[in-house]
Fold:
Amino acid sequence: MTSTTGTSGTPGTYTPKPGAAPLPRMIGAQAALETKMLLRNGEQLLLTVVIPTLLLVLFSAVDIVDTGDGKAVDFLAPGVLALAVMSTAFTGQAIATGFERRYGVLKRLGASPLPRWGLMAAKTLSVLVTEVLQIALLTAIAFALGWSPHGNPFAVLLLLVLGTVAFSGLGLLMAGTLKAEATLAAANLVFLLLLVGGGVIVPLDKFPGGVESALGLLPISALSDGLRDVLQDGASMPWGDLGILAVWAVLGLGAAARFFRWE
Amino acid sequence: MGNESVVQAKGLVKRYGTKTAVDGLDLDVRAAAVTAVLGPNGAGKTTTVETCEGYRRPDAGEVRVLGLDPVREATALRPRIGVMLQSGGVYSGARADEMLRHVAKLHAHPLDVDALIERLGLGSCGRTTYRRLSGGQQQRLALAMAVVGRPELVFLDEPTAGLDPQARRATWGLVRDLRADGVSVILTTHHMDEAEELADDVAIIDAGKVIAQGSPEELCRGGAENTLRFTGRPGLDVASLLKALPPDSAAAELTPGAYRVSGTVDPQLLATVTSWCAQHGVMPDRISVERHTLEDVFLELTGKELRS
Structure:
């Protein structure tokens, strides 16, 4: 905690003694605060927890969408995991960061001892912590619904990490270039569109051929398709989907690094 | 110690598109003193301060803060300065104490957070999140965030804008304590009384340039004529009075019985006026000396009124 330097008004209370805290402590503190802000925010929780959970439970229990052969939950669980990653790394991060930029939080922290890359590292850490919580919850629910996953856990991890990087890049690009209100609207709209058109709950083969191949190039489609290849069909390494995610990651992060404005 | 400069700016220029916000500004700020950067809205105060803080890269000229380049040597500089932005800077969902504790954690030897909260009356914020705090509470939190890391140099951008008188005095009290403990403070303001009350040094900025700098006393003395007024019998011989006065003075009967003497009003001049009155059997009633205020100096230098 903080050092005691005497009561207020005592001479010497404010005698300069500057210094940055050790870097790991700064990043840890920043990540903890960011995570706390996210978990305290009702709209963010709706996006990251309530909607994925409801979709998983509802569509597993009620046969609304034709999810092909096999149990519905085996089709839905990978898609909902992909949705969870998108909701946190893209939608949630874009909206939160957009408002932090608007309210001068990024600017003020920019004058603190925490370096800018440290702030970005803390944001990433906070996204990862949130994702771990989401995935733990959604996996437990899916198992309760009779989910039987297959495949290579390493491939799943690689997909989730690459997906997180790709969505973070795109989210930060949006937050760092658009106005906060525009980010709020656009991030929610994109979330909704990709939820429907990204192979999350509706199989992509329900769309006409040309549309299907275009939609297949979206990061959400690559992530949900890749996860499904591994978890539902036991594929060892979905290289095509990993490649699509890698391209989005490079493009998104590259553009964010180039165009992000802190004020 | 006292002669050290904490900020040195030479020929600073900052443009936004075609608009020149800072236009060849020179500024030298002493250590362990309170320096007020005074000027009307749009004079370039915030741009100047934000250039010192490392937010803006100057288009021309040079700035050194604590001997460092604020942009290139930001990593070394940031832990040593405290920054209070004109507004914002806090997560809308964070509580006051939470945010202050967080900023404290980014520093190696922070102040005691609870004592600082009490000092600035932020304890009453309780569990209220930033967006629901009053403007005054938000200002005081931003001030606390600027000082909690025990910086050598603090930048306060309009620290009392919109505060009620009581909160304003609390802020002034903290600024005085900072100076007493050897912290250098640079604050921007468009309140004359704030500059007069607090500042050891005042830099008057207009149209992107420092047009005058010095202590409030120096600025009020330098060039500015002062005024002495008294009332007496109507129809006194003003010409005779004028003869008794030093050559750069003026004297006039403004309304019957109300006299004004202007010039360098010092004890000598006061004695001259009273002895002239004694010689002429005049009792100078309601004799008063009007010193020029910073407001007058500012008006003379810029031809503009400060918004207050």
